[in-house]
Amino acid sequence: MLDIKFIRSNLERVKKDYENRGFKADLDALVALDEKRRAAIQQVEELKNFKNSKSKEIGILKREGKSCDAVMAELSGMNDDIKRLDDEANALETQISDELLRMPNILHASTPIGRSEEDNVEIKKFGTPKVFNFEPKPHFELAENLDIVDFERAVKLSGSRFALFKNEGAKLERSLINFMLNLHTTEHGYQEVSPPFMVTRETMTGSGQLPKFEEDLYKTTDDMFLIPTAEVTLVNYRSKEILKPTELPYNITAYTPCFRREAGSYGRDLKGLIRLHQFDKVELVKLTTPESSYVELDKLLGNAEKILQLLEIPYRVVQLCSGDIGFGSSKTYDIEVWLPSQNCYREISSCSNTEEFQARRCSIRYRDAEGKIQFVHALNGSGLAVGRTLVAILENYQREDGSIEIPKVLQPYMGGMTEVVKK
User: Fold this and answer.
1) Share of residues in the chain with pLDDT > 70 (%)
2) Does 238 qualify as catalytic in the annotation?
3) Does residue 388 have an active-site annotation?
4) Which CATH number fits the domain 4-101, given the four candidates 1.10.600.10, 3.40.50.2300, 1.10.287.40, 1.10.1740.10?
5) Which residue, 10, 32, 197, 335, has fewest beta-carbon neighbours within 10 Å?
6) Annotated catalytic residue: which of 38, 174, 261, 275?
7) How confident is the model at residue 267 (pLDDT cuts 50, 70, 90)?
8) Which residues in 68-150 belong to E strands, given as ranges?
9) Given this model, what pLDDT does residue 73 score?
10) pTM, whole model, 2 decimals?
């Protein structure tokens, strides 16, 4: 959430950023509301000061045995005026806060300007896509032939866009989760937690999912929500706290299932594991100082990249443009993995710096070296999406007979298994 003071002081910049995002907001009207709120607060203070001075005058008159009727008349109805102006200021503050919760973050100066994903900028590539001497099969065909994912029975159980992993598929999924968590906790310095998968409206609002993305969320009858990403719980974990400088950067990771309605994706990726209503993900979150947050963003990106490097799967990194960047992000790198059957790169991780946008919503602050209390910067990234990593393994490690070679780094997690073959 942006600070209304920041908007007032940087009105033209915010207008330009929102124009570059393609987001429409009447910022002049918002500033006018804030001016009205501040005027009401000022009037309340003036009335209270006047009331206090007159109350002292009444005390003096009474002690001197003089009449205070004239002064009492001046105070007549003043309490009603103060309450009316207080109520007006509070109502305006609520209205402004509601508007701010629906407004996206400002952009970092390095975020490229563009309208869609076509304008994203490629930063680097890792690995060379393998040239097959046969037509590579899509992951869902490979998985069904190997009997490691059951799409048909998943539909019977839950409807479309669900999957049931079985046999070596379930083992691969579990191995990937353990591999990712072990790497991030033992080599990258993250603290592992296992958070709840259901959270309150306040928690969803703190991380930025509400109110904007409510239609994409699964909600219970008592106003609880299934998390769409562990980012929600990890960012909120230290909400309403003041961190010590020695705790920063605060690195935290978790595996969770993620639940999304995918309301705007009908007709896209109908087959397979690319876009499901329920999927597994290992999430990375960093809380740090404003001065170090972009250094930490590069580290977070590198932590996510390391998974694909060890799996020896080709990928590229792109920086998202203003028209494709997420609601809460100031700067975002996407990692896109190579899928042979589609002959293109597909997103497997987004690594973002939200600066103080999420921290302000969650009230996460720290005390700096001078003792001043400031908002932290919050960063998040997938490290990685488990289902899409499995997709990348199936497609990049496939053989002509439909069997799958297991990446060397995963073999210890698979009990020494080196391949998945049709039974």
Assistant:
1) 99
2) no
3) yes
4) 1.10.287.40
5) 32
6) 275
7) low
8) 121-126, 149-150
9) 81
10) 0.94
